[in-house]
Each structure stands twice: as structure tokens, then as C-alpha cells.
Amino acid sequence: MDITQLKYFVAVANTLSFSEGARRCGISQPSMSHSISELEKQLETTLFNRSRKSVELTDTGKQLKLRAEEILELAEKAKLEIRQLDQGRTGSLSICAITTSSAPLSKCLSVFSSRYPDIITDISFTSGRNQTQAMIEQNHDFYFAVKEMVPQGDTFDYLVSNTDHLCVVFPPDHPLADRPLDFGMLQDERFISISELDGPVLSREIDHVCRTRGYHPNVVCQYDRAEAVLLSVSAGIGISIIPEALKGASYSENVRFVRIPGKDAERTYVIAWPQKSANRAAAKFLEVVKELYT
Q1: CA dihedral 280, 282, 286, 288 (to 10 degrees)
Q2: For the CA atoms of 12, 17, 19, 24, what is the dihedral angle to 10 degrees?
Q3: Residue 123, pLDDT above cutoff 70
Q4: pLDDT grade, residue 152 (50/70/90)?
Q5: Could you tell me which of 28, 33, 65 has the C-alpha nearest to residue 50?
Q6: Angle CA(44)–CA(46)–CA(52) in degrees, nearest 5?
Q7: Percentage of the chain with pLDDT > 90?
Q8: What is the tens place of the pLDDT at every residue in 185-196?
Q9: Which has the higher per-residue pLDDT, 55 or 127?
Q10: Model pLDDT for residues 91-109, shown as the tens digit of each residue
Q11: 45, 53, 139, 210: which is deepest, by most CB within 10 A?
Q12: What is the pTM (predicted TM-score) of this model?
């Protein structure tokens, strides 16, 4: 018993006519009769009561009709799903991102989800260290990260999505918050730093900016999350340096961002992906990325 036999059987069962069933299936009536006879032999039962004037389903025929229709519907659904999967219209996609790359990620997802609503997208937000490790292990289809996080070599491709700037952040009522930025006036300020272990790239960027401006931060505490830094600054514990992209994060409304001038205070963000991937859904996402950023 195969799908074609069931299709022929259901056509006759619905029309109660071998000739009409054959016409709907695009075969001759003798071929239809032969197919039904072969099916009855395989099942060792009679599916139709035939007479010169009528065709009727037997009780076993009625039961088979119910099951055959279920099987044919499932087969059609499976065929559609496979076709859609082959075309990249269904499937799943895994994205790893750092918090400060939320803006380009949101932009890509908005276009992608409207175009391919049936593709499941899983998103993981990570710290800088975990993002770098995830890229080395190639655990995801795409990475929204800082350019310096992309592993060296020819295993990844990427496109630049946007640039950001490092900022000095002050408590809202700090006397220096409304004055032109002067690192010489920050020497005695209590400084809240980002952990180098959890944010090695950001930590190096901050260290470079400070050194080139002759600034030696008076570090009083250190956190692995930018949200904790913002909370501490808003509470008046000290000042800090963080990316401007965090303006929309928790507690950011209670701090003052002052952009640090200079090219060395810029951060370049990228969307990166492994060069070798068999995921068709990822290929569709890449089309969206290239549309938006090339």
C-alpha cells in the first residue's frame, strides 16, 4: 500500500464512481479498477460493493477512507514543509549578541520576521568574553558583536553595522556633567570599572582611551555587567566609561552621558557569520543583512 493507491482509493470513495475517480486522478478507468483491486488484495478485504448501477463503501472501506484521508493530509503537509524548508522559508536560526548591538539586531529582526514569520529565531545575549568564546566555538548562525571580537583567519565573514562612542557617565547632579569634558579634572573622581575578565575588549578600549589622555582612573569597584555600573553611577558612587549604546539600558535615565571625542573612542560593530553553513534559514537572514548593510 502506497500513497498513490490511497489517493486513488479516496478519489473513488468520495465520488462512488470508478470513472469519475479515474478522471479526477488523470488515469484511465481500467487503471483505477486495477489499482483498487490490488489494494484490496494487499489488505485482504473488500473495500467497495460493486454492482452494475452503483458503487458503495463497505464498513472496512469507510474505516480506511478515514485513515487514508488523514495520511494523505499529513503527506501533503510534510511535502509543503519540506518544500518550504528547502526554500529557507521555515526552520530555525540562532543568534548571539552583546547588549550594545541591540539596535542593528532589532533592525534585522524586524525585516526578517515580517518576511519569514515561520522561521524560529533564538537569541542569546552574552557578555564580551562569552561572545568571543561562542564565536570561537561557532555555536550560532550569526553574531552581533564588536569588530575586535571576530576571530582572526578565514572562518568568518562580517559586515559593519554601525559605530558607537565611548562616553564618560556622571551622576545626574555631578558638577562636571554640564562642563566640557576635561580628563585632567577627573583624576580624583571615584571610578567604577568593567571587569576585564567578562569584558576584555571593552576593558582594553577603556584602558587605551584613558592612557592616551593621561588619565589614571581611581577605581573603587568593578562589575561584570554594564547595568550594575549604571546603577552605581546613578547612586552617586562614582563615574565610569561605557558605550553610548547603553543609553537605553536600565538606570541609564539617571546618569549623564558625555561623549569622548576622538576616533580612538569609537567602537565598530559588526554582524558576523561562519563562512561554512548549511542552514537555509541562515542564508535567508544573510540576504536581509546584506540588504540593510551593503
Answers
A1: 90
A2: -50
A3: yes
A4: confident
A5: 33
A6: 145
A7: 72
A8: 999 999 999 988
A9: 55
A10: 889 999 998 999 999 999 9
A11: 210
A12: 0.69
Residue 86 is predicted with a pLDDT of 63
Report the distance separating Cα 102 and Cα 248, nearest Å: 10
Parallel, antiparallel, or unpaired: how do β-strands 218-223 and 190-194 relate? Answer: parallel
Give the whole-number percent of the chain exceeding pLDDT 70. 96
Reduce the secondary structure of the chain to three states and give it as a string. Answer: CCHHHHHHHHHHHHHCCHHHHHHHHCCCHHHHHHHHHHHHHHHCCCCEEECCCCEEECHHHHHHHHHHHHHHHHHHHHHHHHHHHHCCCCEEEEEEEEHHHHHHHHHHHHHHHHHCCCEEEEEEEECHHHHHHHHHHCCCCEEEEEHHHCCCCCCEEEEEEEEEEEEEEECCCCCCCCCCCCHHHHCCCEEEEECCCCCHHHHHHHHHHHHHCCCCCEEEEEECCHHHHHHHHHCCCCEEEEEHHHHHCCCHHHCEEEECCCHHHEEEEEEEEECCCCCHHHHHHHHHHHHHHC
By C-alpha distance, which of 45, 42, 47 is closest to 11? 47
